[in-house]
Amino acid sequence: MLLCLVLVVAAHFITAHAASSFVEGRSTYYGPWLASSALSELGYQPNDIGVGCSNGEPGGDPRWNAILAQGTHTPPSFPQNANTVWPKVPTVAVSQAVYAATPEIRKLACWNTVLIRKKGGSVVLNATIVDFCPTNGCLWPNEERARNLDIYGQHTWEALGGKTNESTMAIEVQWPESLASLSPAHRIDLRSASWLLSICIAVLVVSITL
């Protein structure tokens, strides 16, 4: 029985740790880029255009408006960025294939926040999920989609330690508990916890039959 108690505590520790730990991933970037017209994309536009999590209500989604109320950067002077909206709050896109697979999962993902740091870096940013890397067109390998992020804008990319000449960056992400079950690392930990609980059940069965 003591062994069973120890295993239950260990299983609880594993699952709790999985929900609160940083998971390795990879980041790409999109949106405005001051340093290069070739790299700078349209990004978000007025009326919530480009904000995949917006509910589309007239006057803008209140959650998006709350982000914009915290300030915006001046967009690049390139023609494609004439109407670009660039919030100061760090924002990211996640995989549509994974985090919008069902309306319920999409609801959990949108407007939630993740902690991001460059792998081995000391700067940690709190970013809001506002958009999706589309299922058809997202260049991330299928096995990476659950843990990758698309970072919006040059400022956030460089704040994390990314370079202009780098198209990807190794990152570590702390996913919110409501999304952690979709993380590959979390699934591995859950398998470990399940294995421990199976041993516990076997011990109980043996003790009862003896």
Overall form? globular
Beta-strand content bin: 15-25%
The Cα radius of gyration reads: 21 Å
What sequence of helices (H) and strands (E) makes up the elements? HEHEHHEEEHEHH
Mean pLDDT value: 85
- Estimated helix fraction: 25-40%
Largest sheet properties: 6 strands, mixed, barrel
Oligomer classification: single chain
Report low-confidence residues grouped into runs of 5 or more. Answer: 3-19, 186-197
- Total DSSP helices: 7
Q: How many beta-strand elements?
A: 6
Distance between the termini: 13 Å
Strand order of the largest sheet: 1-5-2-4-3-6
Secondary structural class: alpha/beta
Q: How would you characterize the overall build of this protein?
A:
- This protein is α/β, with parallel strands linked by helices and 210 residues long.
- It has helices at residues 2-20, 62-68, 96-99, 103-109, 154-159, 177-180, 184-209; strands at residues 23-30, 91-95, 113-118, 124-133, 149-152, 169-174.
- Strands 1-5-2-4-3-6 form a six-stranded mixed beta barrel.
- It is globular, with a radius of gyration of 21 Å.
